[in-house]
Each structure stands twice: as C-alpha cells, then as structure tokens.
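User: Please run a holo structure prediction.
Assistant: Happy to. Please share the sequence and the ligand.
User: Here you go; the ligand is adenosine monophosphate.
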Amino acid sequence: MSGIRPTGFLHLGNYFGAVRNYVRMQEEFECYFMVADLHSLTTHPDTKELKTNVHRVLSENIACGLDPDRVALFCQSHVYETAELYLYLNMLAYKGELEKTVTFKDKVRQHPENVNAGLLTYPVLQTADIILHRASYVPVGKDQEQHLEMARTFANRFNHRYGDVFPEPQAFNYGDELVKVPSLDGAGKMSKSENQYATLYLSDNDKLIMDKVKKAKTDSGPTEPNSPKPEIIQNVFSLMKLVSGQDVIDKFETDYNNCTIRYGDMKKQLGEDMVKFIGPIREKAESIRNNPAYLKEVMEKGAEKARKSAAATMELVREAIGLNYF
Ligand code: AMP
C-alpha cells in the first residue's frame, strides 16, 4: 500500500522512490495505491487545481506501468472508512510524539500561518491509509522512513490495547535501501513544489530537461587522481545511475578518477538519457489524461476494490474496540 499527494507534477524522485517499486510489486502482491488527496488539504487548502492534479497523478502512475486491472488504484477521499479509522487512531497518538515529527517541524517553518491540526496528525492519517488494508509493505522513498516508524508504533499500540488486528507495516524498496533522488542544485531532494528548476518532472519537455540538466551544479573538477567525490558531483553520478547504461557510467567514473572528466559532456549525456527515459512516459501520460471517461472508470473500479478491503478491516476494528452493542 502506498500513496502520492496530488500537489503538483510527479518527478523523478516519485518515480525512483515509489512508483518504480509499485510497478514491480503488482506482479507479486495484492496492491493498493492511492492518490492522497486528503493529505494534500493539510498544506494546499485551495482546491482549484485539485481535480486536474488528481487526474495528472493517476495518468502518470498508469503511464509508468501501473495496471488498474491488477491493482486497486484509487482516490483516498473515495474510501470513507479512512476517516473513521483516523478518528480511532487519533486517540492513540500523543501530541508530544506528533510534534517531534521532522516533516511537521519543516512545514511549521515553511508555513507558520497554517499550522492546522491535520498537519500535526498527518502521520496518523497516513497510518490509517496503510493499516486500513492491513498492509505489510509500504513502498516509499527515504523521506518517509520516520512516518513508517510512527505507523508501526500506532499499529502496535492499537494491537496492544484492543487485540491483534494489524500486521506491522514496514517501508519497502526492491534495492538495498530506501531511495533519495537528489535535486540538481545540490540542495536536498527533488520535490513537487519547492525547487522547480532543480527537479525533473515526468511532464517536462525535451528542451526543458536538457536545460535543467545543463544547469546542474558541478565544480572545477578533481585535481588528484581517485579523489573522493564532493556531494554535488556524487549527485550527478547518482542521477546518471538511474537512467544511463553501465558503459556510460564506467566511462565517466574512469574520466573522474583520471582527472580528465568534462562535466559539460557528462551533463549533455545525462540530459540525453533523461530525455529518452522521460519522453515516452510524458507522452503516454498526456494521452491518458485526455481521456477523462477512462480515468473515471479507473477511479470507480479502484474505489470499489479499496472499499471492500476497508470494510472488512473496519468490522474487525469495531469489534476489537468494543463498539458492538447489539
Ligand atoms: P509525495 O510527493 O511527498 O507525495 O511523495 C510520494 C512518494 O514519492 C513517497 O513515497 C516519497 O517517499 C517519494 N519521494 C518523493 N520525493 C522523493 C525523492 N526526491 N527521492 C525519493 N523518493 C521521493
């Protein structure tokens, strides 16, 4: 089970941190993937763009290879049971632990004018999303590690207080560790809204991709053979590893170690490989987005599957809590 907020355009971080794993998981597991529209209300109260963004996230997920016939691909707000479970879990979450969450502190800093209770209890809603389907594996990027830890805490607390209902959810990635796709300006990670020129979106056109990669931060190059790579250079190599062939990576590694590397050439190659990777996804997503009847069908089918699973869990939850008076 996992979700992505419809707060803007999907980017390479969303792809390599999350969606790539979704696509592989659909072959092996019973999967629930949602557009986290309720979560987006905590930071984006203006809903003018919401419908467009929901359609966009759905289209991009499908264009990346998610098969709506195979998985439950749905909108969070279509599964009303989420709100009920969120309410019960809120009685099990303490103000102190919620205030310590790193993402909460970041958001308070970014938007001091909108520190709402939903923002504080974001990890509780996220736990409800996950355990509503009694999910074990949650494919997410590295930035979600702490939220998953909290989801385990809340699920365990529920089990301890009311009896075993939920498995322990854990963050999941097919590689060795959770992924963080760095931004092109060497400052932090790619993100939907914070640093648009340093983030590669799955909707960027070829020229924009080439321009952004060209402007990626580099330095004047190594002066000693086999020197360790500074972080900004490591970031460019990390991005190359995501989309380029092994021969290309090996060539630039050798050039780096021999101090003959030309970052202009490296970024040109990286830009071209990014264009090859992103182009087909962008085109497919565009054609899906232009078919609202199909998207409606996807959302209806997804909501039906998700609500079936949610209803079964909520029977167990109400019984365990003791809300059975007849
Ligand atoms: P969000 O865009 O915050 O709704 O995140 C959706 C999914 O993408 C989550 O699983 C995140 O962990 C993942 N994600 C977002 N940005 C990155 C990034 N730069 N690198 C890796 N994963 C990311």
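The chain is about 55% helix and 5% strand.
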